[in-house]
């Protein structure tokens, strides 16, 4: 073989090797991003699952409180409105806003409960309150897991060179599940 042919074959082999490495990297990065996106969807499903559990518990809690505090209609209306918004939410930001509104309404309900010592001693109410507390804990964990997945994904799609693959796939930054500012303040409970 001629020296020019050997050099040509070496150059061709190097080009093929570079192409194989590039395609392998692209496929690997694509699969990793798809896996992360699916993880976010799975974590969001867990958030929705816990929100649904809370959504289902609240009418029982409200009905128990209504038996003792029927004149607190404003609180009950706020809870019903917030539940409706939560049931009709279609995006992470809408769900977060509706959940925050429901959190605020539930906080007001718990303040009302403090005014009724007989209600606080009611076994049914206590069981519902425990169920709701457990659901809130599971919801907090689900939100944290979802936000952790979003953080990893959002970081990955912004970093070079994965951002090139993310751009070609049309992957965009995901929204965090954030609570509203008014829910950050604890409700005031007066034991007088």
Topology:
Layout (H helix, E strand, L loop, with lengths): L2 H66 L4 H15 L4 H22 L3 H5 L1 H36 L3 H8 L11 H4 L8
Helix pairs in contact: 1-2, 1-5, 1-6, 2-3
- Number of H/I helices: 7
Number of strands: 0
Q: Based on helices, strands and strand pairing, what is the structural class?
A: mainly alpha
H-E string = HHHHHHH
Q: What is CATH's topology name of one domain?
A: de novo design (two linked rop proteins)
Give the % helix.
over 70%
The CATH architecture of one domain can be given as: Up-down Bundle
User: What is the name of the CATH class of one domain?
Assistant: Mainly Alpha
- Give start-end ranges of low-pLDDT stretches: 186-192
Largest beta-sheet details: none
**CATH-defined superfamily of one domain:** LemA-like domain
Rounded to the nearest angstrom, the radius of gyration is 27 Å
What portion of the residues fall into strands of 2 or more residues? under 5%
Please give the alpha-carbon distance between the first and last residues. 101 Å
Rough outline: rod-shaped
Mean pLDDT: 85
